[in-house]
Amino acid sequence: MSNEISYEQYASQFLTQLPRGAFLTVKDQGRLNTMTIGWGSIGHIWQRPVIMVMVRQTRYTYQLMEASSDFSVSLPVQGELKSDLAIAGTKSGRDIDKFSECRLTAQNARTISSPVIGECGLVFECQILFKQLMDPEHLNSEIRAKFYGNDDYHVLYFGEITACYSIDQ
Known about the structure:
Pnp Oxidase, Chain A, 169 residues, eight-stranded antiparallel beta sheet, single chain, 5 helices, alpha+beta, two-stranded antiparallel ribbon, Flavoredoxin
């Protein structure tokens, strides 16, 4: 059972949970993966509700994001799924099936083809509107030195929030 909600109601929960970890899930044809994200934003751009997520080009998820037109962000209830977030953030979907490893359920989404994580309490479904590789020439030098010493830059994906709902546990 799930309840449709306004994304504005849960924007602060998104921003509070994100540094602790959330699941970014994407599917392209038969390939499915989820990864832990800790950086991103939520807001209103182009007269639409939008979530921006970041994925490094070296990640398996990047391949799927490039081939897909959507993604989901699933937030666990505070403090839950901590070990699963750790696995999804340190292991590659190239090497393991994270859903089996973490015993996570890929549940059908309402408005997109990528699934959501059934064990999470809050879900955002997103349709990709824009993507852009970071240009190091335009990046603050302190941030560049701290987070990109190996030149492994992120691609920013802006997704329109097409559905936001809570999943009853």
